[in-house]
Amino acid sequence: xxxxxxxxMSKTIQAITLxxxxxxxxxxxxxxxxxxxxxxxxxxxxxxxxxRRAIWSFSRLAPRExxxxxxxxxxxxxxxxxxxxxxxxxxxVRGFTTIAESADPDGLMQQTxxxxxxxxxxxLSQGGTVDKFIGDAxxxxxxxxxxxxxxxxxxxxxxxxxxxxxxxxxxxxxxEGLPPFYTRFGIHFGEAVVGxxxxxxxxxxxxxxxxxxxxxxxxxxxKQYDTQVLVSEAVYARVHHRFxxxxxxxxxxxxxxxxxxxxELQDELPD
Length: 271
Fold this sequence. Notes:
By secondary structure, the protein is an alpha+beta fold. It has 8 helices and 8 strands, in the order αααβααββαββαβαββ. Helices cover about 45% and strands about 25% of the residues. Strand 7 and strand 8 form a beta hairpin. Helix 2 (about 40-60) crosses helix 3. It is globular.
């Protein structure tokens, strides 16, 4: 049993209260729980500590904004969704299958994790929601769960900043004798169904619809046009005053009925 605290019960209650207030922050918990010589307070301290660890672990398995919304009841845990505008981003690594075939499995997992960390740190810094990892690909979107009036700009800025971050980590990879991960991006704006998809036992907060499909198609078109970041006409219309974009082509993407003009996102204009 822990020794009696020098300042008594009041100090212990204050410490437990502080830990409880830190629950919504999703910050890593301290190594040890607040302990007390009083059984009830000792149990409460350990319970709060376990709760902090559970929430922190949950925030590493799901997007933090989703976890925060679940905690404050702004996001339902029921199946279903709603229609809203989003900006969707898809990424992919060129030649990843070939890289994976000749790589050491453990080494590849470590390298890919480092790459994903660099990529997702940028997406999160621009307020994006990292939806899922699909092999070497990343799907992310903006304007959900929280509204963002400048979500197209945020997505474009994230792609450009991610290029820089990935170039830096690729230089480190090459120093270590590892293959670089050349990354391509596709960005589209439109209406999607956003919400909880899955079963009553296992669900995922995600976005569905043609906006997501076209973002993925745009990413794939980079190979055809030898580009790295392609955006749709809908994105271009909302960001051309802030970013340099070069017209590439008018295409009918796979699975789409209508034509769309495609642009290469080059850089951000100075303020």
